[in-house]
Amino acid sequence: MKELIVKTSGKTYTIYIESGIFNQLPDIFQEKYSGKKLAVVTDNNVFNIYGNTFIEKLQQKGFFVIPIIFEAGEKNKNLTTLTEIYDALAEHAFTRSDIVVALGGGVTGDMAGLAAATFLRGMGYIQIPTTLLAMVDSSIGGKVAVDLPQGKNLVGSFYQPDAVYTDPMLLETLDDRCFSDGMAELVKHSFIKDIELYKQLVSDDVYDRKSVSKNLDEYIFTSCNIKRIVVEEDEKDNGIRQLLNFGHTIGHAIERVQNYSGLSHGEAISIGMVLITRLTEGMGLTEKGEAEKITAALKKFSLPTKWPDLNIPDVIKAISLDKKNRSGRITLSYIERIGQGRLIETDLKELEDKIHGILKD
Ligand code: GLY
After folding, report:
1. Predicted local confidence at residue 34, as pLDDT
2. CA of 313 to the centre of ligand 1 (A)
3. Domain of 153, in residue numbers
4. Atom of ligand 1 nearest to the CA of 143
5. Is residue 78 classed as helix, strand or coil in its secondary structure?
6. pLDDT of residue 306
7. How many angstroms is it from 135 CA to the middle of ligand 1?
8. How confident is the model at residue 78 (pLDDT cuts 50, 70, 90)?
């Protein structure tokens, strides 16, 4: 089993990565968390595939378990569902030493994590990510939140989990589009911090999902390790953690304009990474030719790289609503060359003009 220890100011925790670990979890839980109540938060899809059996096995091990199931989809990552989680925890008299278990993708982890962070001012919280995106990104680093009608992730906190159990075998049930969605974040980690990972991913040995899957445990481990390093240095997202936003300023704007029902997050940031790199190449901040290389890498994982049919002023307006916008200035994550992410503080208006310029061409 591969293990990564994440050390943050509030908590030190382990990410366990192993194909097949999911089936061992009832035993592992019995050994580590015996006597605690468990609230398994999951969506209806994951409940039907994995949750039902998982909960039964935990009950057979003597655990008191409540399932908290919500309808899958970002549209349910809201205060109403959060209240339902609180209600269930209160109804069953959960205490601070009991545990919320997030079994699912990013939406589940974000919402279960926020419930765990705030119910009784903080209780146990374990992540079992079931999507590639959650495995390499959202299950690590403690960002938890729900959306408001006014925007995504507007109510949240930083709350690190007590442990993350990552089983790449769970990805076998993921559809190809959802798999590519996660690959966007995994490849992004190589772009900002790891040329060796990039070289492996673009090598001839990797040509489709099946061939990626041969070394997926390794890629997930390397990718999680990159995020671990960044989060340990800047847990609260005031500095180097913003490197993880490579492609996100534009990506988030695309998602917002499409009302979160068009391109997936990974697809939107894929386009964002290409566009921002074209732009920084033009500004002389990025070595020439890198935009072409990252385009080729992203295409390899069936990710879109071309600008979608969107109204440019709408996109520019959405960029200005980015919550990273601080009094008209924004910290932009870009690459000097592949493997070397950099941050630059820039005037939002200037950035918008440049994006406008590049999109018109
Ligand atoms: N997904 C970006 C971060 O965790 O900071």
Report:
1. 96
2. 27
3. 2-172
4. 4
5. coil
6. 95
7. 12
8. very high
- Decide: 261 and 74 in contact? Cβ < 8 Å: no
Q: Could you report the per-residue pLDDT of 142-177, keeping only the tens digit for each?
A: 999 999 988 889 999 999 999 999 999 999 999 999
User: Ligand 1 centroid vs 357 CA: distance in angstroms?
Assistant: 28
218 CB within 6 A, ligand 1: no
Structure tokens at 171: 């990805």
pLDDT given for residue 358 in this prediction:
86
CA 58 to chain centre: 27
CA 343 / ligand 1 centre spacing (Å):
15
Cα 99 from Cα 348, distance rounded (Å): 42
Any idea how long the chain is? 361
Give the HSE-up count for residue 292: Cα atoms under 13 Å, Cβ half-sphere: 3
Q: Indicate if the pLDDT at residue 323 is higher than 70.
A: no
Give, using CA atoms, the residue closest to atom 2 of ligand 1: 244
Is the Cβ atom of 237 under 6 angstroms away from ligand 1? yes
Helix (H) or strand (E) holding 210: helix 209-214
50 and 163 share one domain = yes
Return the pLDDT at 27. Answer: 98
Phi/psi-derived region of residue 74, left when phi > 0, alpha when psi is between -120 and 50, beta in every other case: alpha
- The CATH number covering residue 30 comes to 3.40.50.1970
302 exposure class (CB count in 10 Å sphere: 0-12, 13-18, 19+): middle
| In a domain? residue 145 | yes
Q: Is 231 in the pocket of ligand 1 (CB under 6 A)?
A: no
Q: What is the dihedral of CA 14, 15, 17, 20, to 10 degrees?
A: 80
pLDDT, tens only, 191-244? 999 999 999 999 999 988 999 999 999 999 999 999 999 999 999 999 999 999
Task: Pick the closest to residue 216 from 179, 245, 244, 247 (CA basis).
Answer: 179
How many Cβ atoms from other residues are within 10 Å of residue 149's Cβ?
Answer: 7
Q: Indicate whether residue 241 lines ligand 1 (CB < 6 A).
A: yes
Q: How many domains does the chain have?
A: 2
